[in-house]
Amino acid sequence: MNKIELKNGIYWVGAIDWNLRDFHGYKTPNGSTYNAYLVVGEKIALIDTVKRPFLNDLVENIRNIVEPEKIDYLIVNHVEMDHSGSFPEIVKLLKNARIVATKEGKEELLKHHGKDYDITVVEDGDTISLGNKTLRFIKTPMLHWPDSMMTYVQEDKVIFTSDAFGQHYASTERFDDELDEKTLYDAAGEYYSNILWLYSPLVSRLIEKVMDMGIKLEMVAPDHGIIWRNDPHKPINWYCEWANGKSVNKVLLVYETMWGSTEKMARAIAKGITDQGMNVKLMKLKETEYSYVIKELLGCRGILVGTPTLNNNMFPSMGGFLTYLKGLRPKGRIGATFGSYGWGGGACKAAEEMLDEAGVRIAFPPLELKWVPTAEELEDCYTFGKEFASKAMEKI
Ligand code: FEO
């Protein structure tokens, strides 16, 4: 079996999950990988484990390089179960390895795995020598959990970044130079928007912190997807842009419709947006997963939410989507709502409140109309689209 060597005795020993389609609510049409790494110096360290069903893949990949009992350290960069699911079995297999984690990681490992493991706690900047290689630990709390840290191999300038800079992308290609840039951008953006968007303020601070430490990077090795060896700064630059709310000349229009009236409004609004010189993306929620909509919003500077009124409230699917959006708190977007109602109304106001709670700046009051839109009302929708696009352009 071929060994996958990143450089100078550093190996990928993870697993490919071709069939993963849902990662705690985030749809993953391309599967994922659980990357674990072996750093072979005079001493040997295993960085992270894999999701429990993939234990055998990890063990086989380790045995292809060294006998597990020769491993001296098990470094736990992150405790979420996609990385520590195999932890109990691996600890038994490694026999003599010292377990290393942050203080928060120790607490989480004990709570998740229910046993009093002997765990060495490391602080920010601590190092462990493997003889000819040095591991340096950088705490990165909330990227993605309180326990999260990165591990840097000083001599090789390789950093293991845990969830950061990952992608849910299953492939036999392991490195960025083996895939085209659009595929990588889309995969990294989908991952960032659905998992890390909420933590954008921290992302900027943590990237600054790593840069201030004067760390030179030749390879960025995340726990999911492709390893960045050709241009390790590329995902860092993308993260800086996303964290700072960078968007393009585009509006996202997400809607539901009952008997077609709100859809007619959506199309008239979209025409107004494009006639004002802005691009627009229409997504009917019934046909689209929340996580795909969120990925689109990452590139858009405005969001319009269309929902008919059902039983004095918005469509339940729109409520679900806005709850998901609220959890991610997208930064620097403007928004508004629209929709058709029969008698009482109420959907647009309810949706507007949730948009506001999600951190979206409400640019206009809701545009509502009764039953089926008339030609004049569709003209109002068109104008609404133009005015919304003008407002969104102010941010350019
Ligand atoms: Fe890939 Fe936060 O786990």
Model description:
It is a single chain. By secondary structure, this protein is of the alpha/beta class. The chain has 12 helices and 22 strands. It has a 7-stranded mixed β-sheet. It is elongated, with a radius of gyration of 24 Å. The N and C termini lie far apart (52 Å). The structure holds MU-OXO-diiron. The site of MU-OXO-diiron has 9 residues, from helix 2.
Helices, strands, pairings?
Blueprint: E1 4-7, E2 10-12, E3 15-17, E4 22-23, E5 26-27, E6 32-34, E7 37-40, E8 44-47, H1 55-63, E9 73-75, H2 81-84, H3 87-94, E10 98-101, H4 103-113, E11 119-121, E12 127-129, E13 134-139, E14 149-153, E15 158-162, H5 181-196, H6 200-212, E16 219-222, H7 234-243, E17 248-255, H8 261-275, E18 279-284, H9 290-298, E19 300-306, H10 316-328, E20 334-341, H11 347-357, E21 361-362, E22 367-370, H12 375-393
Parallel strand pairs: 8-9, 9-10, 10-11, 15-16, 17-18, 17-19, 19-20, 20-21, 20-22
Antiparallel strand pairs: 1-2, 2-7, 3-6, 4-5, 7-8, 12-13, 13-14, 14-15
Helix pairs in contact: 5-7, 5-9, 6-7, 8-12, 10-11
The structure holds MU-OXO-diiron (FEO).
MU-OXO-diiron is lined by residues 78, 80, 82-83, 144-145, 163, 223-224.
